[in-house]
């Protein structure tokens, strides 16, 4: 009998093993990996009440999407126009967005709910940009629109994701703390369009911002504007705006520090014209200081011969006027480390044959012992090298020698050959380079024709990305400009209409209603090849209105 029972249980045991095997087998199945990345934002499937509805009287709006959503920075991104004292409540859950209206609605009014970039999918955070929901509490919808393009005033390139907004003239407050309720953002071509606008008179602005709060922050943001109010009584297109970085109206030190080598550095929010630095307390420390401003005069580094002070007061001046004084303190046990380093003006260790070799130290140098400086030409020691201090630069020296084309050079500074401030000494430093061939460089000759000899112009050669000025020449009349010995590359030529004749491009000022000086780009990209003399004619057009 026991034997029969055991036999009877055997089939059940087999079934149990089979079921367990299937369970674990199924559990090991995984979602296939790979495939194209999802780049599509959520799509609206249904809206209740429907979008663009008239005679609206609902308290809640429900929007269904084709995928799971989440809300991102909705307090910054979402707005309702006209504004309400009690903002709507947004709630995202699964594939649904619910908007609860807390405040009462005005009669016969068109409302626009702008979600900016607040709605994204839950997996890849793809943004549903410039999504709006519009309704009217009356029988008709406001239907006017404004469209145009936003570009950068310096590069002329379109601005992506610039914020464009309008403010009723009676509430024009660009410098306020509230974000605009009527806005949109630009696409990759810099194009924008604002729809369902009410008839009225507005000021229009564009922001290229960093914070994303749609509030103009002069320190970081670029801004553009139309000076005169626009009267909106019909659809307006080609309302184009150029954004620019505004100069700070009030001088401020944005960063200051006593560095680990004992130097003082400061960064400013303005480009100074004729800057000076003086130590006013203790006054005796001012003598013998060494000062290095950067090219734009918006930062400075100061080295003092005496670091025995507990506290130090420094004055920053421009054109003889004190802008600000700042205090530095140091601990009695503070120690400083000074490692002497060298940079040079070679390009990938190749010296332009039309330029002298220039070296720059990281701190002021008191003495260079030439007996400990060795020049190797193709591994052979050579004499006749001279190193002279640059009279216009605290940190730079010119190295002179009859360099030979394509010969490999090693400029060796033996340990202790350089004596820096506070008797600091260098470790061994080697600079490897060669002299480039004149055949590797090119010349661009531009025959420039000006439209008006009573005006001033500035011709600038800029790099392919239009970000760096390679060369700059003032133009007062039609003439031939020779830009010689430049590295083969692609360049653009741009013209600054120098309205105030000061020789530099001047930016705009919003509060004064001043636009930046206009810039025109020659349509052709200049590709310079080695050992070529490129000649082109540049006819400067009159500035556009």
Q: Could you please describe the fold and organization of this structure?
A:
With about 550 residues, the protein is mainly beta. It has five domains: about 45-135, Immunoglobulin-like; about 145-245, Immunoglobulin-like (Sandwich), CATH 2.60.40.1120; about 255-330, Immunoglobulin-like; about 340-440, Sandwich (Immunoglobulin-like), CATH 2.60.40.1220; about 440-540, Immunoglobulin-like. The protein contains two helices and 43 strands. The strands form twelve sheets. Strands 11, 12, 14, 15 and 16 form a five-stranded antiparallel beta sheet that branches. A five-stranded mixed beta sheet has the order 26-35-33-29-30, with no helix packed on it. A hairpin with a 5-residue loop joins strand 21 and strand 22 (about 300-305). The model is unreliable at about 1-10, about 15-20 and about 20-30 (pLDDT under 50).
CATH class category name of the largest domain: Mainly Beta
Could you tell me the strand content as a percent range? 35-45%
Largest sheet: 5 strands, antiparallel
Characterize the overall form: elongated
Helix percent reads under 10%
Q: First CA to last CA: what distance?
A: 110 Å
What is the annotated CATH architecture of the largest domain? Sandwich
Instruction: Report the structural category.
Output: mainly beta
Tell me, rounded to a whole number, the average pLDDT.
Answer: 90
Give me the CATH fold name of the largest domain: Immunoglobulin-like
Count of extended strands: 43
Provide the CATH superfamily of the largest domain: Carboxypeptidase-like, regulatory domain
- Determine the number of helices (DSSP H or I, runs of at least 4 residues): 2
What are the low-pLDDT stretches, counting only 5+ consecutive residues below 50? 1-10, 16-20, 22-32
Number of domains: 5
Q: What is the C-alpha radius of gyration, as a whole number of Å?
A: 34 Å
């Amino acid at each position: 009998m026991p034997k029969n029972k055991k036999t009877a249980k055997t089939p059940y045991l087999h079934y149990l093993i089979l079921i367990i095997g299937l369970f674990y087998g199924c559990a090991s199945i995984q979602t296939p990996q790979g495939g194209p990345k999802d780049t599509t934002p959520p799509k609206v499937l249904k809206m209740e009440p429907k979008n663009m509805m008239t005679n609206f009287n609902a308290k809640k709006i429900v929007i269904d999407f084709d995928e799971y959503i989440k809300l991102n920075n909705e307090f910054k991104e979402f707005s309702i126009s006209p504004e309400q004292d009690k903002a709507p409540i947004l709630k995202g859950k699964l594939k649904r967005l619910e908007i609860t209206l807390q405040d009462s609605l005005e009669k016969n009014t068109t409302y626009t709910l702008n979600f900016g970039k607040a709605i994204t999918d839950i997996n890849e955070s793809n943004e549903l940009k410039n999504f709006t929901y519009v309704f009217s509490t009356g029988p008709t919808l406001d239907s006017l629109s404004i469209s145009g393009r936003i570009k950068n005033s310096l590069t002329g390139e379109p601005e992506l994701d610039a914020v464009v907004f309008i403010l009723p003239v009676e509430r024009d407050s660009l410098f306020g703390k509230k974000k605009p309720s009527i806005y949109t953002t630009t696409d990759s071509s810099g194009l924008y369009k604002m729809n369902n606008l009410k008839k009225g008179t507005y000021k229009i602005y564009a922001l290229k911002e960093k914070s994303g709060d749609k509030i103009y922050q002069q320190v970081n943001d670029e801004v553009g504007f139309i000076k005169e109010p626009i009267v909106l009584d019909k659809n307006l297109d080609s309302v184009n705006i150029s954004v620019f970085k505004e100069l700070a109206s009030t001088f401020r030190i944005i960063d200051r520090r006593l560095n680990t080598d004992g130097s003082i550095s400061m960064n400013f929010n303005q480009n100074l014209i004729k800057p000076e630095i003086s130590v006013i307390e203790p006054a005796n420390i001012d003598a013998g200081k060494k000062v290095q401003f950067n090219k734009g005069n918006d930062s400075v580094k100061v080295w003092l011969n005496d670091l025995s002070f507990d506290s130090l007061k420094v004055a920053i001046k421009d054109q003889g006027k004190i802008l600000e004084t700042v205090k530095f303190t140091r601990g009695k046990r503070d120690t400083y480390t000074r490692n002497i380093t060298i940079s040079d003006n070679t390009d990938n260790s190749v010296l332009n044959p039309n330029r002298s070799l220039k070296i720059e130290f990281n701190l002021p140098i008191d003495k260079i012992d030439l007996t400990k400086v060795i020049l190797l030409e193709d591994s052979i020691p050579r004499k006749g090298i001279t190193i002279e201090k640059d009279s216009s630069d605290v940190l730079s020296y010119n190295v002179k020698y009859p360099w030979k084309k394509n010969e490999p050079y090693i400029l060796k500074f033996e340990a202790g050959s350089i004596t820096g401030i506070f008797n600091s000494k260098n470790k061994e430093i080697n600079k490897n380079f060669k002299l480039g061939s004149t055949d590797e460089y090119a010349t661009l000759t531009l025959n420039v024709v000006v439209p008006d000899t009573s005006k001033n112009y500035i011709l600038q050669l800029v790099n392919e990305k239009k970000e760096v000025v390679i060369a700059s020449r003032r133009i007062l009349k039609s003439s031939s400009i020779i830009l010689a010995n430049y590295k083969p590359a692609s360049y653009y030529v741009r013209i600054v209409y120098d309205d105030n004749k000061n020789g530099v491009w001047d930016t705009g000022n919003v509060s004064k209603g001043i636009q930046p000086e206009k810039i025109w780009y020659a349509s052709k990209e200049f590709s310079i090849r080695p050992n070529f003399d490129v000649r082109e004619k540049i006819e400067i057009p009159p500035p556009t209105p």
